[in-house]
Amino acid sequence: NDSAALVFVLPKDKELGGVVDPNSIIEEPMKSCSNIFVRRWNIESKHNMAWEGFGLLASRSVAAGMYQAVVRNALRHILKAAGLVIKTFNSIDGDEIFLTVSLDA
Fold it and tell me: Staple partner for 95: which of 18, 50, 83, 90, CB 3.0–4.6 Å?
């Protein structure tokens, strides 16, 4: 994508040709998400954790497939809410998802 300012490369589940074992367990998933979405130097980033989709991670542990799906959806939600244009597509070999971010369509 020529207009992309930033590209995230996100792994897919093994069932879909990726490397993530969807049945492995992620301990303390909310803490892990907080490490991704909340930055100490950006006070406003604490609001990122208010997204309702994080409710799926409220237990002490979750399957990695669920965790990965929530993180991908949260990333899309937060970036779109900031007014950025988001597009996703599969890698050529299908083992990853590219999420492109641009300022305009």
Answer: 18
